[in-house]
Amino acid sequence: MRLCSAAVAVVLLALQCLPGTAYSTLSDETLKNKIPRPQSDDFDIKTGPILAPILVPRVPGTENSLKVLNHFVQYFRNELPEWTVSFQNSTSKTPTHGNKEIPFRNFIATRHPPWVVAGNAGYLTLVAHYDSKYHPDGFIGATDSAAPCAMIMSAVRSIDAALTRKWQKMQDEGLDLDFDEEHSRGIQVLFLDGEEAFQSWTATDSIYGARSLAEEWDQAMYPAMSTYKTMLNSIELFVLLDLLGCGESLPIPSWMQNTHWSYQHMAEMESRLRNLGLFRSDPKQTWLPEKDKKNDAHFNQNIMQDDHIPFVARGVPTLHLIPSRFPSQWHKIGDNAEYLDIPTVEDWSLLTAAFAAEYLELEGYFDERPVAQDTLVRDELPP
Ligand SMILES: *[C@@H]1O[C@H](CO)[C@@H](O)[C@H](O)[C@H]1NC(C)=O
Ligand SMILES: [Zn+2]
Question: Which domain holds residue 328?
Fold first, then answer.
């Protein structure tokens, strides 16, 4: 990912999309006692079943890259069997590999209500890139973006049972489930390959996987009578996590005017989780400080180059969760496992889960949390 000094002209077809209405607030009770927190060892950097397997160099086309891809597949098969897993593959030449075609493999996992056919489901789409940079040798990219992938994996597991309960109840009650946005909303995870430039960031040496996927999905038509015309259209909100997980204070601005409403919801959730004492990271930080920014204020929406660009260019509403000042170890060998602040990784995962639960309107569908999980909360909870 790269910050451009000159604004890049991107056709913001997205402006045509009105803010979604999807959203209903979770109660304090649900946040405190119900929504599952990340499991205690999820993010152990040596043995954590979610994070540790991603903390290896993952250059596109290498054996390690395939191992990490396989880790995602196994995780969804074992932990999230209701999800549908697929890939979108492409190849491209790169500036460092001459005439050789390098393979790029995007990982896609999707779940929508059982009564909905694919073309009628709209998605909350959670996205991170899983490749790591070619240089320097041995580069891990723990914040860039191994940790964001792990945050998303844990977050979707936290809401999965509540989704099942909600959809089961809707079916049991025999609601009229046709052609209603709320009743046809699903969730999707994209782990994209080839985000990093091999040599230096240009339009053709960067975001290989994202460019290929956006182009393909733009052409992938659903059957004629579907709610959504293409696979790209069925993304309601593209939430991109990048450069998260170290302990430095790196505030994230609200980058996009047309999704400012979703930033505000997430910022509100951050402050609620902090005020309820449910975060373990440095309590003095605020990750999303622009909750009160006005809709007609200035948005720096075209300066940050990242995987969302080919989607935004095609009108996909995007919430970009990337700090404006990058981690001090950005693109250095020091962006390794030890650089991560695990309480920060856990808290981001909880925040992502809670945001998704509100987006998918899951209040009332969480069970009491098993007692053991409460011991993870740092201090006494306020009454
Ligand atoms: C994409 O690549 C993966 C990993 O090599 C492979 O398992 C899968 O079958 C490929 N998918 C398609 C649709 O070609
Ligand atoms: Zn990077």
Answer: 2-380
